[in-house]
Design goal:
By secondary structure, the protein is α+β, with helices and mostly antiparallel strands. The chain is about 20% helix and about 25% strand. It has helices at about 10-15, 20-25, 115-135, 155-160, 170-180, 185-190; strands at about 1-5, 30-35, 50-55, 65-70, 75-80, 90-95, 100-105, 140-145, 180-185, 200, 210, 215-220, 225-230, 245-250. The strands form three sheets. It has a six-stranded mixed β-sheet with strand order 3-4-2-1-14-13. β6 (about 90-95) and β7 (about 100-105) form a beta hairpin. α3 runs parallel beside α5 (about 170-180). This is Exodeoxyribonuclease III. It comes from Faecalibacterium langellae.
Length: about 250
């Protein structure tokens, strides 16, 4: 099974920069996107052989997640069941016979860390949600998790220390998640490889490869041995993020 995740930073904009061609090229069984920035029906994209599921933020032009699936899931859940966290279209869960696929766009702590306290509340609630799923069947979590976990995951770790996405608090919450029974698929197969999935639009960051690895496939540790490949497609453009891939035998 081949899974793709991509923060498209506005699906309508990405469609004008080759999204459909990249979608076809990547040929995924489940293709998850984050930051759609749209309401249902606002984009003209309906690939043959896929069923689409979307979860939009209440605020127009903001956040949002979507999945295209070759196999129709048993059930689809929007949100995590906690009212304060379910207004921004951030978590879309697909249930299949052998696993849950959770597509997530984690809240950004923002400039000046204005939303860091909320982010910490979110992290604890979201981890509890994942653990409740994991108690039933294995979980595959994908998405823009808005954190570079380790120094190897960011180009300029010293100058970015305590910036949004690289605070001790956010990195600590990722460690808590992994310690709770999950594995970072890319680091599982590429323990020492330096590769990024997001680059600022400023300062020619992508040309200089001054990036961050903040897009992930996280899997329940008990299915980690089933992971066959975990890739970061930094050759694919169209957003300030690039797609990430998981190939797994399930």
């Amino acid at each position: 099974m081949k899974l793709i995740s991509w923060n498209v930073n506005g699906l309508r904009a990405c469609l004008t920069h080759g999204f459909a061609e990249s979608f076809a090229q990547l040929d995924a069984d489940i293709f998850s996107v984050q930051e759609t920035k749209m309401q249902p029906g606002q984009a003209d994209f309906a690939p043959d052989g896929y069923t689409e599921y979307t979860y939009s933020a209440e605020k127009k032009g903001y956040s949002g997640t979507a999945c295209w699936c070759r196999e129709v899931p048993l059930a689809v859940t929007m949100g995590i069941g906690i009212e304060q966290h379910d207004h921004e279209g951030r978590v879309l869960t697909l249930e299949y016979p052998g696993f849950y696929l959770v597509n997530c766009y984690t809240p950004n702590s923002q400039d000046g860390l204005k939303r860091l306290d909320y982010r910490m509340e979110w992290e604890d609630a979201f981890r509890a949600y994942l653990l409740a799923l994991d108690a039933k069947k294995p979980v595959i979590l994908c998405g823009d998790l808005n954190v570079a976990h380790r120094e190897i995951d960011i180009k300029n770790d010293k100058t970015n220390h305590m910036s949004a996405g690289f605070t001790d608090q956010e990195r600590g919450k990722m460690t808590e998640l992994l310690d709770a029974g999950f594995a970072d698929s890319f680091r599982l197969l590429h323990p020492d490889e330096v590769k990024y999935s997001w680059w600022s639009y400023r300062f020619h960051a992508r040309e200089k490869n001054a990036g961050w690895r903040i897009d992930y496939f996280i899997v329940s540790r008990r299915i980690a041995e089933k992971v066959r490949a975990a890739e970061i497609h930094n050759e694919i453009f169209g957003s300030d993020h690039c797609p990430v891939e998981l190939d797994i035998d399930l």
